[in-house]
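A quick aside before the break. I want you to see a complete sequence-to-structure record at least once, exactly as it would be stored in a machine-readable document. Don't worry about memorizing anything.
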Amino acid sequence: MNTARLGPTSLAASLAAALAFATAPSAHAQTGAAATPDSHVERLEHNGIGYEVTYRPLVRTMEKTIGAHPGARSTLQRCRAVTEIAIDREVRLPDGSAALSHRLTDMQRITAHHIGPCEQNRQALAKARLRQADAIAAQVRAMAASDRPALLAQIDAARALAVN
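That is the input. The structure line, written in tokens, reads:
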């Protein structure tokens, strides 16, 4: 920040606004139950053994105001919200023992743009996160379906290590 152009009042106001923004409960890097869809659970039978496979999405949303605000003219700013979805897979036997955990390598991103700075778009961003819940759940189901060959190979490899 170039403080040479700011007077003491505007510098103090800028610092106060930045501190309030940084300490406020915000959705800049939000993860949690409200933003995270439910886990996807599948039952799988492989080589005569039943498994319970849980795909748990880890959702992180980052927001950033982009563009300029040229004084008295209308703003050119927009809020870019990027939601990253990582998926953890956990394989368990039906009795809940012998967990095999793995984070899937494909991270999905959903990007949205809103007119105006992020601070003025809190309600719109919250509504967008709620609308994304269905898209996130669909992504988790699609990743679970495409993960099946790798999952079976990992189960076979773990079983081969346990037998030897």
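Two observations worth writing down. Residues 27-163 form one domain. The first strand starts at residue 40 and ends at 46. We'll return to this after the break.
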